[in-house]
Here is the input.
Amino acid sequence: MPSRNWGLLRGRPKTTSIFRSEVMSLIQLYIPSDVARFTVSQLGEMGLVQFRDLNSEVSAFQRSFVNDVRRFDEIERKLRYLHKQIEANGVDVYEFLDEEFVGGSRGPRDLDDMEERINSQESRVLKLTAAYKNLQLKHLELLENKYVLEEVSSLFTEISGRQGAPAGIQGAGRGAGRGQDAAPLLARADTSSRRSIGSLDAARAGDLEADIGMSAMGRDINVGFIAGVISRDRIATLERVLWRSLRGNMFLNYVDIEEPISDPNLEEPVYKSAFIVFAHGESLRARATKITESLGATLYQVDSSAERRQEDLIDTMSRLDDLLHILMNNNVARFNELTSVSEQLNTWFAVVRKEKAIYHTLNLFNYDANRNCLIAEGWCATNDIPAIQSALHLATEDAGSNVPTVLQELRTTKEPPTFIRTNKFTDGFQNIVDAYGVPKAGEVNPGLFTCITFPFLFALMFGDLGHGFLMTLCAALLCVYEKRLAWLAKDESLRMFFTGRYIILLMGIFSMFTGLLYNDIFSRAMGFFASGWAWPTDQGGEGVTVEATKLDHVYPIGIDPAWHHAGNS
Here is the structure.
């Protein structure tokens, strides 16, 4: 039984109507291999054919065009990476879409040129981003090194200053240290940002101060130090672990860095502290080094000579300034590169997704090696067959081939799919019906009746002249200026309102009608005409039931406002 007679057997002509599904035909296409992509592209732009999968027993990885699908998957991945970089750097994405390139015929050379440009720009963005990250790491290292040098220099300067104090004061400090086991190694005035913990033998403490003052620290008693930077929330853990592991034979001094430090490996800036640890002997210092590194600290080499430390500090600050200029130039270069990408990003995304859809569709076809062609089957509306033949002719011309695609209708007893044509007015109502169920081919389509019943039933629940007027006004503006407001369809939260603007329009009109019948405006009764009931002047006080007197006329339209506050309404 030919599918084009399906509707005729039910006693209806092959005409377009929202009342029933279109009369469908099962067609078969013999497409030459060199024309296949152009043919699917043309048919896809028209959207008139639903192809059947002729390779349902073949896995997705064994189909003919799987390599082409992977190719455009990779291109789409690169575009997603570029889009992520554009958002991360605050570059505006242009809404420009090259309609000629997206909707026209794209040859293999056009696609190769597009892929080459995407690869080139992705490569440049990758290099600039990698260079920026490396520069940020270098900037982090120099910045932390600067804070460590400043802290160590400040500590040694304070020690040297105390060594120049009167002997009686210094002697008193050492005497107090001998009397207490946990006396601080380097006693100093308390400050809000600098704290210290630790103790060594009092005699060693005195020798240490003398040795530091003489710039020969560790020559006689082998006391050295390590310095670095650690996250502020781990400094307390570092204190406890060092104290217990080294049994108190250490001195820790640290200062909180006021400004947060941006770490490229972390999403948010981190507050850190610069620290210095004095310990006796190589083994204790090695143990302290392992402990600090295990807690995520970064250690830096600091010279014990004041002159060398000053030179290192000046050199570090100079390198920081140079690095900031390089970072600024890198930012400008990346911004310019991403701006050029953003101009074509929407066009590239549209083309890549269309090409992926084309090759996914080609994977549904059978390949005939003897004829060097693809065999496709699909359903289409019988009325659309002339338009499909025209599209096949255009595809052959675009491919520059002399071998046309052959189309023939197949006889079948299979029930055709449902295809109901809609427009911008009926599309929203048809979606409501399809959400509950799609009618079979030949059945009456409830969508036609839904255009009236749905807004009317809504109005029965939402009958209000004032609120209905506001709904009608908003929907009318969306309908009148639908071309200007088409961008609303791209917003996820506003898409429903824009696509359902005609539904809202009818709901508003019906709500105004039922609101007029209910005599209700903004939840208040309307007294346009004289009521058909009269209330007595003496109502008898609170809690007394009062009956209204019926007059000799009725309210002209809708519900009498006297019923709004009646107890038996």
